[in-house]
Amino acid sequence: MRKPFIAGNWKMYKTVPEAVRLVKQLRVMLDDMEDVEVAVCPPFTALHAVGEALKGSGIKLGAQDVYWENEGAYTSQIAPPMLADLGVDYVIIGHSERRQYFGETDVTVNKKVKAALAHNLGVIVCVGETLEQRQAGETEDVVRIQVEQGLVGIEAPLEKLVIAYEPVWAIGTGHNATADDAETVISLIRRTLGVMFGRDQADATRIQYGGSVKPNNIQEFMARETIDGALVGGASLDASSFAQIVKYK
Ligand code: 13P
Q1: Closest residue to atom 2 of ligand 1, CA basis
Q2: Is CATH 3.90.950.10 the classification given to domain 5-246?
Q3: Is the CB of 213 under 6 A from ligand 1?
Q4: Is residue 63 within 8 Å of residue 83, measured between CB atoms?
Q5: Residue 83: CB within 6 Å of ligand 1?
Q6: In angstroms, what is the span from residue 71 Cα to ligand 1's centroid?
Q7: What would the pLDDT profile of 72-95 be if each residue is shown by its tens digit?
Q8: 0.90 exceeded by the pTM?
Q9: Cis peptide leading into 167, omega within 30 of 0?
């Protein structure tokens, strides 16, 4: 069985004191969580402090990006061993904001995924179509190609791999996809994984939905057998709303 996985992507929010305050609140509120894996993904600047504040809590630590080289003259970049050294469990790769604003492509996503996996980091690979692509009927092709090219050359087992289906038009807009829409695309992603890695690997891989997930809609998504969790943006910045999402049952 795939264990549900709910992760908070804090994006470019929270100073160190704000981040520590948030995780201290979350620790109390999520003390009794069960049957769900939870991660928070603060900005790089807060990773160390949040990691310290999470110790012994069961809440996992995630980063929002990584570079593919181990070290070198790459001003501003963060290498996989640096994240591993901080005790980071997961790294988000290929978020649509990185694709939209920072030139991330399926080629760079693939390099990052391989580098992160080589350092035993869990990866959350984001895929999803824009509004124009959806309106042009291209959703399935776009997402299939993102999966195929983002994961080309990866070796099974895929136990460290999570995929997040995040339709771009649903991110930060308050217009979440319907559970039916999410299920359709997530099933396509699982079929694509099946072709690439075999049915067993595909069946074991967790696929999250992301895009305007809130306490009042999480249950709709989690009720679907195909949807294994959520990647939460805005609603993860407040302890009580994120805790309500984690405790969706
Ligand atoms: P929102 O939940 O704010 O729509 O953001 C989703 C997202 O991009 C998570 O990575």
Answers
A1: 233
A2: no
A3: yes
A4: yes
A5: no
A6: 30
A7: 999 999 999 999 999 999 999 999
A8: yes
A9: no
